[in-house]
Amino acid sequence: MHIPDGYISPEAAATMAVISIIFLVLSWKKAKATCPKALAPLLAVSSAFVFAAQMINFPIIYGTSGHLVGGTFLSIILGPYAAILSMTVVLLMQALFFADGGIIALGANIFNMAVIGGLSFYIVKLIAGSSIKGKRFFIGVFAASWLSVILGALACGLQIGFSPAFIEAGGITVTVPAMLFWHVLIGLGEATITTTAITQLHRVQPAILNGLAFLKREAI
């Protein structure tokens, strides 16, 4: 889902940058109000963990592989707003130092992975309510993780498909099915890894799951 530069039009890139900046400003204000005082160290540690986790790829089919995105995982660890900020740090580092996603397309990548991933927290909320244990909670984590990948892939397919570079090749009729086909499968890997990790953390170290307290008090 990392869109390189040149795959979307400058107008689309600028629009997505503005949208992502709005979400980042709101997330920063919310995170400062709801997270512990040590927000910066918390973001640094969580971002470093997800950055490293994304380096590990798992096989899908036909030689294709996927990797953890981590948006839902971070939202359970940090809450949705700090998760958006943490994922943005990861994407910024990848774009600047590893050319994994373009600089001009950074706003689109932030929206597709950081914003959608962080806000997938509310899918957990929708399914689990205020419950922080039991089947409903873990079903919510699984569903949110999977849907965060699907919705991110859909947004990516639409952004690329409406780009002049791809319109002549079929536009969204080609890009959206192509993105969704692979990411339906990648999303299952994401959901399995995320749910397993959260299950184990909930069992052995529930105190670090700051999103659980947020889950209990946050209204949809």
Beta-strand percent range: under 5%
Ranges with pLDDT <50 over ≥5 residues?
Answer: none
Which CATH class?
A: Mainly Alpha
What is CATH's topology name? Arp2/3 complex 21 kDa subunit ARPC3
Q: What is the approximate shape?
A: globular
Q: What's the total count of β strands? A: 2
- N-to-C series of helices and strands: HHEEHHHHHHHH
Our measurement of the CA-to-CA distance between the termini, rounded to an integer number of angstroms, reads: 28 Å
Strand order of the largest sheet: 1-2
Radius of gyration: 17 Å
Major sheet characteristics: 2 strands, antiparallel
Number of domains: 1
CATH architecture: Orthogonal Bundle
Work out the helicity level. Answer: over 70%
Q: Helix tally? A: 10
Average pLDDT figure: 85
Secondary structure class reads mainly alpha
